[in-house]
Amino acid sequence: MHPSPQARTALNTLFINPFPFELFPAPGIGYLKAVLEREDIGHQTWFADRNSLGAVLERVPPLDLIAVSIHSFAVPFTAAILPELRRRHPHARLVCGGHHPSALPQQMLNLGFDQVVTGPGELAFLEIARGRTDPVIAGESPDLDSLPWPDYPCQLPQIPSDLPIIGSRGCPFHCSFCASSHFWKRRWTPRSCENILQELAAWLDRGVMREFMFEDDNFTLKKARTLELCEGIRTRLLPRYPGLRWQCASRAPALADEELCRALVTAGCFRVWLGVESGSQTILNRCRKNLIVQEQIEGIQTARRCGLRTMAQLIIGLLGETEDTLRETCRFIQLAQPSDVGINIAWTLPNTDLHAYARERGFSDDDYIRKGVPYFTWEHDETTLRQWAARVQLTLKEMSA
Description:
The protein is an alpha/beta fold. It is about 40% helix and about 20% strand. The chain is built from 16 helices and 14 strands. The protein has helices spanning about 25-40, 55-60, 75-90, 100-105, 105-110, 120-130, 180-185, 195-205, 225-235, 260-265, 280-285, 295-305, 325-335, 355-360, 365-370, 380-400, and strands at about 10-15, 45-50, 65-70, 95, 115-120, 135-140, 160-165, 170, 190, 210-215, 245-250, 270-275, 310-315, 340-345. It has a six-stranded parallel beta sheet, with helices on both faces. Strands 7-10-11-12-13-14 form a six-stranded parallel beta sheet. Strand 13, helix 13 and strand 14 (about 340-345) form a beta-alpha-beta unit. The longest helix is centred in the C-terminal third of the chain and has 19 residues, at about 380-400. The N and C termini lie far apart (about 65 Å). Mean pLDDT is about 95; it is low at about 1-10.
């Protein structure tokens, strides 16, 4: 049996990303690890993802803290590894945070965690590392410029990689299917452009990044700030790193502004991801998207004229979806002609309107542990939703033929 944590002065901490299908290193873990190592409190830290966990557990010394970053899709993978973590490190405190624990903290305690952080994790995790033992701790939003840059290299292979860059946190909107508004409490918090540019330069200079993706919910929310940041990338980074390319996310109507589109293109942005969701005004209104179909079309068309690619992300099966609204979405694609289209079926994410609707009709939150995140099937069965998604896909094939 491991000696108790009180017998050691240097705390050993393992950070785990349990989801095996991530495209990028996990920003949450990167920030937590960087904040912990910046504070002189005697920690040694390690990182493991789902694929490397077994090997890491074989070589780490007895652990005092095990911190797991969880979104809803990672819950079954998390449940699968907890018994082994307990067996190998019985004295370690198991701590979790992220979108899912923030929505359902008691479920995480019942699953076997000792402590749950809800909301932003950096400051709360420091309190845990210093000895705070409350089962549930509400995190506070820090000044983003005061945070160290996330430790991504610990999560990367030994080759240059694409990195996520967090230019802002949160979103002021309240879409019925999105978990972000609950987690960030509908607050938008930006970093300064100077702080972002310094981080980008640091990763480029270190050779661990060849492209990057602004992981902001809405990169173009404030036009003046977007133009300032694009100008900084164009004048300070592109001369040193010609050919630098990056992506971001926006709402489609923002791209109807030609000045904004051209600024993105000249700064090296080659694709903007758009939460279009539906081509039906009825569906957009019901999910509180606060968008006008025609304005989305104009934004996508302006982006194309300026040489900016668009990825229009659709969600099939939102509240009120019918054969008629699906036809409107297909017609939207034909009119707007985005560069790329991503087709998703609506998920039942915790603390969203879809979640509340499903709960009223018998959905059990235990399904997140047993099965993962289910499709939203309380209006239409999964077979119908898949057929509708295939119909939209057929529209795309017909357009490209």
